[in-house]
Amino acid sequence: MALPAPITIRDRQFVWGSRTYVMGVINISPDSFSGDGLGRDVDAAVEQGRRFEEEGADILDVGGESTRPDFQPVSAAEEIERVMPVIRRLVRETSLPVSIDTSKVEVSERAIKEAGAHMINDIWGFRQDGERMAALAAEMGLPAVVMHNQRGRPFHDVVGDLLEGFRETLRIARQAGVPEERLIIDPGFGFGWKEEQSLEILRRLAELRVLGRPILIGTSRKSTIGKVLDLPAEDRLEGTAATVAIAIANGADIVRVHDVKAMVRVARMSDAVVRGWP
What we know:
10 strands, 8-stranded parallel β-sheet, alpha/beta, globular, 14% strand
């Protein structure tokens, strides 16, 4: 199967299949499941982004609302207040593409048009906000990560449900005028899946290649790792490393992580095995 065509985000070209790219997570929320939420500490968030750049991250993903199970939603206004100053400064003070991680089109629009975000990361895959997020992506000509969120959906089969969900997302994108070449799919590890189902996603990740899109996966510090190892979020580094390596072996193009320095090394080593070295 032919590799997806490269895409440019900010001024960086992402050539799928050449190596694994690393997305660093910057949580501007006080209740992040992973314990790394920075609240409204803009300086700390920007310093984290600069450190991630030095450690080898390829994308910075900024979010202002926790999406852990049983999370408490915040208003669009509150989310905008949290993320806007951070995105503005990261765009000025780093050279990396900055992604806005939100399910609210109002937040994405302000982050892109006023703060300079380069990419949308939508945990509902254009399927929640009245298709307006897809229209915004089309209007701005930006790439988007579109995640399959299994929360509230009936379960039949892991890969079957993923393919059905992504095909609906792709339909919405086409209807809104978003070129398929700008879309990156994310199977939503831990989002509405039982632990054994999330692990099955990793085992069967390569089956998503049939869609012809690059694959992002975010396993970092997730509760599935905690259940397997019986460890709290702050002690899940090795479990995360194992899932990242297996995801890369099974076709992941981008890994979304909290521990950038360590996972950049995991990705480089995994690439050496999977893609060849030197």
